[in-house]
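Please check this.
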Amino acid sequence: MWAPRDSGWWIAITFIVGSILFGLGAAFPLIPGFPLLIINIVYLMGSSLYLIGASVQFVQGRRMKINDRGDAAHVRRFATRNSRAAAIQAFGAILFQTSMTGALINSLNVAQQERIIWAPDLVGAVCFVTASSMFFVLSALGAYIVPLTDQSIYPEVANVGTFIGAIFFFISSIPGLPPKTKALQQGPR
């Protein structure tokens, strides 16, 4: 499973570790008194890994499309779909980056939170639905901040949606790891 020269390995690893971080970020609020700053940093690190993975996936798909012009048309179609999904996912990850960075800024008023945190979070979640896991939209809807209250509508729904989305994203990332080679399967000689 260790194949750092394989771009597919990097994509899978960044998505897997990013999913673990998003799962932790959703689980940490269950611990009484857990620092919000650490939760937000964990989310920011997870979204950074999603962005890296989606960017590598996009480049890999573009390279496949360019290099395989003489191959069968289905290879080019796959590369195009893969690139589109990766581009949408990368855009969503950028929006999550905006949202998580905004969450780290303590001086935002409710209107700024809605514009800088919630709106990019919702649009980013829609991008992830288009590319992968629908539970992130549930998370974004639960995290909507009610004007004049400075409170999320359903913070528990936001955390559960994020946690389940992270689990599904984690599971769907595992098949991206390259298969074991025969040499690794047979062991040392």
